[in-house]
Amino acid sequence: MCLAAPSRVLEVREGTALTECFGQLREVSLLLLSEDVVVGDYLLIQAGGFAFERVEAERAEDALALIAELFAQGDDERRWGHAS
Hints:
Layout: E1 7-12, E2 16-21, E3 24-29, E4 42-45, E5 51-55, H1 57-80
Antiparallel strand pairs: 1-2, 1-4, 2-3, 4-5
């Protein structure tokens, strides 16, 4: 299973974009996208560093909030010794 967290575009360059997700910056290729990308867009990125889908901002922000909540729950479980 693969989980792609939406990454927000900080800069658009010649064929690439600088993105951020949970504080991690990443330079990604826009080669696979047929649509224009602008600063503020959210992208899904493959493991090889290729953006493959632009995501609606509301959907991306909802997904990021859910992922952050899941991370926080995982921290609580580890802290209290409930993780397997």
